[in-house]
Design a protein that fits this description.
Layout: H1 3-15, E1 29-34, H2 38-41, H3 60-78, E2 84-89, H4 97-103, E3 111-114, H5 118-131, E4 135-137, E5 152-154, H6 159-173, E6 178-183, H7 187-200, E7 201-202, E8 205-206, E9 210-214, H8 221-225, E10 234-238, H9 243-256, E11 262-265, E12 286-290, H10 300-313, H11 319-337, H12 340-345, E13 360-363, E14 374-377, E15 381-386, E16 389-392
Parallel strand pairs: 1-2, 1-3, 3-4, 4-5, 5-14, 6-9, 6-10, 10-11, 11-12
Antiparallel strand pairs: 7-8, 12-15, 13-14, 15-16
Helix pairs in contact: 3-11, 6-7
């Protein structure tokens, strides 16, 4: 993204965009929260701190999300959907969600859309519960430990949801193969292994024969080869979220794929790994879960969005940019038709879904409770990288 485009977006954030609003008795109000870091990008006199340099990477995610939302606002405006949209920088010095709420800035808001995490997520969840308005958490793959809060909607599914999707796919497609889970020693990887173990248990015993192997760093291809079978399909499941471990596993498995039949199954973070697209890995199927799939040129809408986004920013849209558009478009339309609890009951309506096939389910931590603790998107795409192409497998 170039400097001029960034400054334009900053101007709309400071202005608090209302350009799509028409004079009416009541228009749905949406508050967008994202980390723009405006105070670090501009000095006290309003001068851009980074000169001719590109926009810093830590600033990019919030801008990408908002740029996508801006394009959705343009589409909604053309469709005659009137909105009041307020935009807030979660990294603004001296400000907080509670200060905004106390100031009355959120009084006319019907829905919160946030690309936030950590304490900001928890604060917005609390405000949503207090005001009884939906909070759409766009990017945080966690529930933050909240409970009894049916106003929170988790879009970026939790780790356990991804692991269940991996397990189910393995059960359907690789049940009779040589199943191996490679992991590190330690509590972090115990979590992944524990989820698989729980899913694999049944009253009559274990369902899949998954052999778990602990690899000590630094490990080599020979350490993996000891568990492989030359006469069978070898399904290697990465049982760790550690990036260094994962990258080492990818490299060594690819080296062994010359002599062994190997399919590698990874974690949801693997979509950001350039390693899985490299030439030395192209002949080995690499499978991983994701809440997002960009079909590229095969989809007319995705192609059009990519073209518009690139025209504005001079770069290709990221997942966050797509998310900004999809969620702003979907929930703006739902707000026009529903409100409060009625909107929450219509979360998975397909009518206004653009690209992602969202499947929001009520989550009850206590199976006897009536009130959901929150809602979570349960639609997980199983993606496969093979021969330079990324394909959706479900």
């Amino acid at each position: 993204m170039n400097k001029l485009r960034f400054i334009f977006i900053v101007t709309t954030v400071l202005w608090i965009r209302t350009a799509v609003a028409q004079e009416q008795q009541h228009m749905p109000g949406i508050a967008v929260f994202a980390p723009f870091y405006l105070d670090s990008a501009f000095d006290a006199t309003g001068n851009y701190r980074f000169g001719a340099q590109p926009v810093p990477r830590y600033i990019a995610p919030g801008i990408e999300f908002y740029e996508g939302a801006l394009l959705a606002m343009d589409s909604l405006d053309k469709e005659g959907v009137s909105l009041k949209v307020k935009v807030f920088d979660t990294k603004k010095t001296g400000s907080s969600v509670y200060k905004l709420a106390d100031s009355g800035a959120l009084d006319s808001i019907d829905l919160i859309l946030g690309a936030v995490s950590g304490s900001e997520y928890l604060d917005l969840a609390a405000i949503a519960k207090e005001k009884k308005i939906p909070f759409i958490s766009a990017s945080y793959p966690n529930d933050g430990g909240i409970s009894d809060n049916p106003y929170v909607v988790v879009v970026n599914s939790k780790l356990n949801t991804h692991l269940q999707a991996i397990y189910n796919y393995t059960l359907r497609n690789f049940g009779t193969d040589n199943l191996l889970m490679f992991r590190r020693a330690g509590s972090a990887d115990d979590r992944v292994g524990g989820v698989f173990k729980a899913l694999n248990n049944s009253p009559s015993g274990t369902v899949l024969n998954i052999r778990t192997v602990t690899l000590n760093a630094p490990f080599k291809a020979d350490d993996i080869a000891k568990s492989l079978d030359r006469n069978r399909e070898n399904i290697i499941i990465c049982g760790s979220l550690d990036d260094t471990f994962a990258r080492n596993l990818i490299a060594n498995a690819a080296a062994l794929a010359v002599n062994y039949k190997i399919t590698l199954i990874g974690m949801p973070t693997w979509g950001d790994f350039p390693e899985i697209g490299r030439i030395e890995v192209k002949d080995m199927p690499v499978i991983y879960p994701s809440t997002f799939f960009n079909p590229g040129a095969s989809d007319e809408w995705a192609t059009g969005f990519t073209r518009k986004y690139a025209r504005n920013t001079y770069v290709a849209p990221t997942e966050l940019a797509f998310r900004g558009y999809e969620l702003m478009y979907l929930f703006s339309h739902l707000l026009k038709e529903e409100s409060g609890d009625s909107l929450l009951s219509a979360l998975s309506a397909k009518k206004y879904q653009v690209l992602t096939d969202f499947d929001f389910k009520a989550i009850h931590k206590n199976k006897t409770s009536i009130t959901p603790d929150y809602y979570e998107n349960k639609r997980i795409y199983i993606l496969r990288q093979l021969n330079g192409e990324l394909s959706k497998m479900n």
